[in-house]
Design goal:
Order of helices and strands: HHHHHHHHH
Number of helices: 9
Helix content: over 70%
Largest sheet: none
Strand content: under 5%
Radius of gyration: 19 Å
Distance between the termini: 37 Å
Structural class: mainly alpha
Number of strands: 0
Shape: globular
């Protein structure tokens, strides 16, 4: 309801950028509700708007999100039709975070299609691109590591799968401890 109100206001004042963002957020709400068809509909509207605005960053991002929904629906070829151009756009503007997300979507699509060689190529590149010299890499890194581990497990390369599962456990442990510290710090501030 609030997003629809925002959308109407942004359209009335002629702010296409924010109107497109609101449309994309409505698509994300439908995705969270499990209504994939409505989510796809709103993402396509957002994509059209970003094409009109010549906004490569927004266009690439929404194409990645659309490919994610298409993967969830089992439409892997259609997902590749959106995630490969999205990857190209993100590489052109050197957006590491979205490059990693696009690589994940391309890799997942190939994995689900049974093309393990191509899936591995994209998933391993996604791990390299997303791994930053920081305490915790971006969230898509963990998902990419998980799908890479699953790929190795599926192809009976158990030792390599264990390596990726161990990597995942390492970061999960750090994330858990960080969360506990933040929880108790917040609790102490709340009590005082």
């Amino acid at each position: 309801e609030y997003l629809n109100s925002s959308l109407i206001i942004f359209k009335e004042i002629g702010n296409e950028e924010h109107a497109s963002s609101a449309i994309g957020l409505i698509g994300e709400v439908y995705l969270a509700m499990g209504n994939f068809d409505k989510s796809i509909e709103y993402y396509k509207h957002t994509i059209d708007a970003y094409i009109k605005m010549s906004n490569k960053s927004g266009l690439g991002n929404k194409m990645s999100k659309l490919s994610h929904v298409l993967i969830m629906k089992g439409e892997y070829d259609n997902a590749l039709e959106h995630s490969i151009p999205s990857l190209k756009m993100h590489r052109e503007i050197d957006d590491k975070h979205d490059i990693g997300y696009s690589l994940l979507n391309v890799g997942r699509s190939y994995l689900m299609k049974g093309n393990y060689r191509k899936a591995l190529e994209y998933l391993e590149e996604g791990i390299i691109v997303q791994k930053q010299p920081v305490l915790l890499p971006p969230p898509y890194y963990y998902i990419t590591v998980l799908f890479t581990a699953l790929l190795y497990y599926t192809t009976l390369h158990y030792y390599t799968a264990l390596h990726y599962y161990n990597t995942l456990l390492h970061y999960t442990t750090i994330l858990l401890y960080t969360t506990i510290i933040h929880y108790y710090t917040t609790l102490l501030y709340y009590i005082h």
